[in-house]
Specification:
CATH superfamily of the largest domain: Medium-chain alcohol dehydrogenases, catalytic domain
Helix content: 25-40%
CATH class of the largest domain: Alpha Beta
Radius of gyration: 20 Å
Structural class: alpha/beta
Oligomer: single chain
Order of helices and strands: EEEHEEEEHEEHEHHEHEHEHEHEEHEHE
Number of domains: 2
CATH architecture of the largest domain: Alpha-Beta Complex
Length: 347
């Protein structure tokens, strides 16, 4: 089978690898029908050391069940399923609290932590299949596939940002970042009833989509200028919630600058830092809450899917390019250069 491997920063290749197979009785084997490149995949694309490669990549996928282990009870050959970016049993104490990204099962993991598997490939072995996979009530060639694929990560992650940010009817919200997660955080905030949604981004094609998703204002400036613009729009106070969907220190500092007293900074951009301001002058003085983390998207799939199926929302609009496996290395280049927002892969 063919799969995508990252050998180091800027070095992505598609190669022949050993076929994925059932290893444990709780596994399922999928033939992947749709996957994609994630903005978080660009972090190792920028920084990965060759000593840590080659590594399989890809953590968002839809596929058809080809085989199941002897203990899998909820899936059968031919089922079309979506796989969240984290493997979980969906039964442990933390899963029952909708924290599937903290599942306590020994096999629970992020896809990036399973060495011989990855979503940017022709097939994949899914551990804990009963808990991880969710059946889709459409055909593999449905026009809804791009939107349903966002349930594997980016839509659920944007929704998690809004939920952890306490967004509700009448809220004021700033979204930092105009990537796919940021744009779907806008969509999520709108879905939850936010009254004002300020999108901080500077790529017009993306911010235009953000306006379509529900943004009421766009601020293209960064740093102190961007902070001043948001405060000007909010009577000098900032917004109730700030959804940080980038992960860099500059985005975190921007979030601190635009949150109102008593507000919430909800981070879902994977932090590219360990040390950040949390003291008196940044968070403590004005009772700012810091929230967020890896989104337990498995917890949100059944909640969000009906709005996709009935056409109420179309989160798949974040995909602006499509390729087969041969085009994946170029897809990374295009996303890195901001020529593409998010690349859909049809193996």
């Amino acid at each position: 089978m063919r799969a995508t491997l990252m050998y180091g920063a800027g070095d992505v290749r598609v190669e022949n690898v050993p076929d994925s197979t059932i290893k444990l009785p709780t596994d399922a084997l999928l033939r992947i029908t749709a996957s994609c490149i994630c903005g978080s995949d660009l972090h190792p694309y920028h920084s990965m050391s060759p000593e840590n490669g080659p590594a399989r990549v890809g953590h968002e996928l839809i596929g058809i069940v080809e085989d199941t282990g002897s203990e899998v009870t909820t899936l059968k050959r031919g089922d079309l399923v979506v796989a969240p970016f984290a493997v979980s049993d969906n039964t442990c104490q933390f899963c029952r609290e909708n924290l599937q990204t903290s599942c306590s099962h020994p096999q629970a993991n992020f896809w990036d932590g399973i060495p011989d598997e990855g979503g940017q490939a022709e097939a994949i072995r899914v551990p804990l299949a009963d808990g991880t996979l969710v059946k889709l009530p459409v055909a593999a060639d449905s026009a809804l596939i791009p939107s349903l694929l966002t349930l594997a990560d980016v839509f659920g992650t944007g929704y998690h940002a809004a939920i952890k940010g306490g967004v509700r009817k009448g809220s004021t919200v700033t979204v930092v970042g105009d990537g796919a997660v940021g744009l779907l955080a806008v969509l999520s905030a709108k879905r939850l009833g936010a009254e004002r949604i300020i999108l901080m981004g500077r790529h017009q094609a993306r911010t235009d989509l953000g306006i379509e998703f529900g943004a009421t204002d766009v601020v293209a400036d960064r740093g102190d200028e961007g902070i001043a613009k948001v405060r000007e729009l909010t009577g000098g106070h900032g917004t109730d919630a700030v959804l940080e969907a980038v992960g860099h220190m500059s985005a975190y500092e921007q979030a601190i600058g635009v949150v109102r007293p008593g507000g919430v900074i909800s981070r879902v951009g994977v932090p590219q830092y360990e040390n950040a301001p949390i003291g008196f002058g940044s968070l403590f003085r004005h009772n700012i809450v810091l929230a967020g983390g890896p989104a337990p998207v498995r917890a949100y799939i059944e909640e969000l899917m009906p709005d996709i199926l009935d056409g109420t929302i179309e989160p798949g609009k974040v995909f602006d390019a499509t390729t087969d496996l041969n085009g994946v290395p170029a897809g990374y280049q295009d996303m890195d250069a901001r020529r593409s927002l998010k690349v859909l892969i049809q193996p």
